[in-house]
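Recall that a protein's primary structure is simply its ordered list of amino acids. Everything else, from secondary elements to tertiary packing, is in principle encoded there. The following example makes that idea concrete.
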Amino acid sequence: MSYCKVIEAMPNGQRKDLHQQYHDFSYGFPIEDDEELFGRLILEINQAGLSWETILKKEKSFRQAYANFDIAKVANFDEQDRERLLQNAGIIRNRLKINAAIENAKTILQIQEIHGSFKNWLDAHHPKTKEEWTQLFKKNFKFMGGEIVNEFLMSIGYLPGAHDETCRIHQQIVELNPKWCSV
């Protein structure tokens, strides 16, 4: 069942509002800014094994804990920062996921040196199949699996599938010309 259908099936309330906000204004919309791309990557990594609702509820805390997703600042996090994050109940306190965020920030800095931006690196590798993207991400980043890569790339407009064609948001995203439209 697609995310669109899941939201439709939810009873009205705060839970539905939380998902609806993400669905209507973030999911599948192209992202140009490297910090926001990095932030989405952090959120997708942290979702592994958990519900997306848990991540949505903690999104503001993630943003604060990870220096507003400032790649250079996170790349310079030290052991004291790692311990601070492990004690932060507002985020997912998983050492592997915290380490992945810090190491992936370092990787993105290297990518920016070579390609000018993380976005340019993504563009340079587009188009790829989900399997090819997964291999590329596993080669370059920490804590990457097929579902993390798939959801990350769907959520930022590089792979199709974020919205059904019958979803009212689908056409709005198509008009923004996400990368998956140019295949």
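The radius of gyration is 16 Å. The chain has eleven helices and no strands.
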